[in-house]
Structures are given as C-alpha cells and as structure tokens.
Amino acid sequence: MKTVTLKNVVPILVALMLTSILPANAFSLKQSTESELPDMVTYYSVKEYSTYIPELRNTISLNIIDLNREEALFTIAQKADLEIAFDSGIFGEANKVSIKDNSVRVADALEYVLEGTGYESVITTRREILLKKKESVSEEEEELQTDVSGRVIDADSGEPLIGVTVFVPGTNTGTTTDAQGRFSLTVPSDADVLAFSYVGYVRQEVDLDGQTEFNIELASDVAMLDDVVVVGYGTQQREEVTGSVVSIRAEMIENNPSSSFENALQGRLAGVNVAESSGEPGAAPQITIRGTGSISAGNEPLYVIDGVPLSQNFNQQGSIGSQRASFQPPPANPLATLNPNDIESIEVLKDASAAAIYGSRGSNGVILVTTKKGTKNTAPQINVRSYIGTQSVFNEPELMNAEEVIDYTKDARNNTYLREQDPTNPASGNYNPQYDPDTNAGREANGAVGNHLIPEAYVNWDGTDTDWLDLVLEPSQL
C-alpha cells in the first residue's frame, strides 16, 4: 500500500461537520485485502456527493503536463489539502494525463484523472481520498430506476418555491427544489407516488404513472389560520394575532421523545435557542428568546403553566456535603417534573406584548404551557407510549492503572530524593548505603521527608486495581 499523508492533524470537528451535512445514504464496507478499503470505512462517492461536500466543491489551480496518474492524484490531493491513499502501480507507467486549468473543482479533477481506469474516488469522513473499483451495473439494474424532474411554484402568485421537499413516501429517496423551483430525482421504477411538502403549504402527492416531468402548484395551508393560539390575556384565532407568537402542538412533542419539555423545543421554534449548558444528568438546558437580553441579570424566559407563573429557581437543591470546596451540586430543575406527554400546546411570546402582560418578569420572553385536560361527556381514553435507549461514553480518556501510578510516583519521588540529597554519593552528608528505589530503607534516618519518601501504600501494594472510571461510565439504559 502506497500512502501519502499531506496533513498530519485532521481536526475531529471537520469530520463531524462533514458527517452532519451529508445525506444519510453513505456506504460501509468490511474488507480485508490490502487492495481493498480498510475495515468498516464509511465513505461517500466523490461523483455523487460533489455538490454536498465543501472540500470537493473547492476550486484549485492545476498545471499538469504528461504526468502519470499516481503523481497527478497526489498533486490534486496536496492542493486540495486532503489525504489520499491507494495501492502503488495500479495504473501502470504508460498512463499519463495532462490538466491545465486555473479554476477546476477538486471532484472534477479527480474524475478526469481516473477516467477509463476502472476506479472511482471516494471520500471518508476523515477527509481521506480512497480509490475503489467501479461496480458493474447490469442493464436490468439500470432499468430499476427512473429519472424524474420538474418545477414547483406557488398556486396563487406563480413564484417558484425554494426548498420544497420532493420525496418518495416510505423511502429515503428525496431532494429539494433550487432557486428556480426546479428539481431532479432518481426514483425506483416501482414507485407509485411522488410527494411534495413545504412549510405553510398543503402537502401534495401525485401519481407517477410513467411520467418524468412534473409542474406542481402548491396551495397555501389557510387552515393554519384557524388555529387557536394562547396569547397571555386569553386565546385568539391565529389570523387575528398581531404580536410575535409561535406555537407547538401536542403531536409534534409526542413524535419527538425527550426527557423534558425544554428539549422538545429544540430546533422547532424560530428565535428560540435551546442549548445544553452542561453535561450533567438531568441538568436543565439554557433557553434564550431572540438572543441575550442582559449582561449581568438572567436571560431565562418566564414560564407560565396553565396560567400560573413558575419561577425556574435553580437554587432549590439542599446543601450537599463535600470534601472539596470547588464542588458544586447540580442545580435542581423544577420544570423536570412536567411530563412532556401531558402537554397540549406550547406558545412562545417573543415581543413587547409579553412585558405588557407579565411586567419585568416577561422581559426575556414568555413560554406558555397548556396541559391536557378532560372534557365532559367523553369516554375515558388511555394512551401508552414508551421508548428505550442506551447511552455510552465516547472519547473516554486513557488513565493509568494502579501499577502505572505506583511506578510513576516512585520515579518522581526517587528523582527528587537523588537530586536534592544525593544519597548514593559517599561524600554526601545524606549518604544512604541502604538506598532502594522501591522502598524507604534508610531514608528517614538520613533526614528524608515529604516528597523524598514513597507512600507506604505504594511500597506494600496489595494488588488492588479498580477501574472506577469504567464502572462509573459503563453503558446504561435511558
């Protein structure tokens, strides 16, 4: 295997960002031979994902004249600040290429060099370029997919809609419309329906029936204007609300299992930022509405549950004894007692109307929570919802075991003892003929104190070696 590393340190943040922006349909291979990809490599085709991955969209300047393909690939990887690895000699000496372009995409350059070789390039989540043999696709397999395209516009204005989700229901096949409202998608030949979904518009499904070109008009979801919204003084029809109010219905909360209702707000309301302030179990996330409103005072919004203001006092935890003054007990979260499944709706007041109703307490916004209630003359209804999950630690630090700690401590104490008292020198006033690096023989008699002495528990170690970190961080169920 011929490997060239062009960058020694690849920040893990880049790999996480790369993974987060990619579609879910990546590939994982488990292979063993040297000419194949490493075990369980998650990779993405350079050709298919060139528009999703920033490193492949970047442009570089190339001036390659009659250079063999291996060196050409190394040159492209170096200019693109990527790593590349492949078997040496897979192209032969006679394969030479030439590229002279001041602005060529990295993906296009890789495809050009590998054209006609029977290999294709892939990129891993660690920004490594690897080569794999192209898989031959039979005519029968090619006929199993159909290319469709079209345009989506507003039914009222005729303007193109940007970001409309176009997908085949029940599959992971989908795409979104561009700035002109156009889309193109490869769908399975057995697909019957193509669905179009957009916020604020009625979802539309059309039968494929062999069609390959679609012109779709989406109608506004005017029914949303009839929803009842809680606005502090009472309730109003959504179409009559003039203030800045956003809301979540019970269905959206139930479809997203969460440990607390604050987590159910994450990523669902415009202008409402939900962030985990710490990794402590049960710790309340920090919620801010329209950014930070104060430097010295609090930035938490006011919570009103069924009309009753609730102070989110994090200092209700009783005193907990500790031997360390720096220890701080985890703050109690009164809102953690509210079951997310008991919530009927959540409204957030974001503008000055919140302060007009609740005074200075609502200066950071108000979150109104309405819980479910029974109604007269209706039969009892019992709902059961459950889920289970597991949690495990990642990036666990590697710590020394008991034997390594003892050896480390002995080396440190002996180095200090030898440096400061020179016990092995007969001419020294602290000469110790009984010096033993594993014991304290003769040390105290010659005036050794403090960090010159090895702890007695380390001298007479009983073999106890408990990995407390492994016990505390063992996988558990949620």
Q: What are the key terms here?
A:
478 residues, alpha+beta, six-stranded mixed sheet, five-stranded mixed sheet, 11 helices, 26 strands, disordered N terminus
Global shape: flat
How much helix, percentage-wise, in residues? 10-25%
Instruction: Order the strands across the largest sheet as they lie in space.
Output: 1-5-8-7-3-2
Mean pLDDT: 76
Q: Tell me the total number of β-strands.
A: 26
Unreliable spans are 1-39, 236-242
The termini sit apart by 44 Å
Number of helices: 11
Let me know the largest β-sheet. 6 strands, mixed
Structural class by SSE content:
alpha+beta
Q: Roughly how many Å is the radius of gyration?
A: 33 Å
Molecular structure report:
- This protein has 478 residues and is of the alpha+beta class.
- The protein has eleven helices and 26 strands.
- Helix content is 17%, strand content 27%.
- A six-stranded mixed β-sheet has the order 1-5-8-7-3-2. A five-stranded mixed β-sheet has the order 18-23-24-21-22.
- A hairpin with a 3-residue loop joins strand 7 (119-124) and strand 8 (128-133).
- Helix 3 runs antiparallel to helix 4.
- The radius of gyration is 33 Å and the shape is flat.
- The two termini are 44 Å apart.
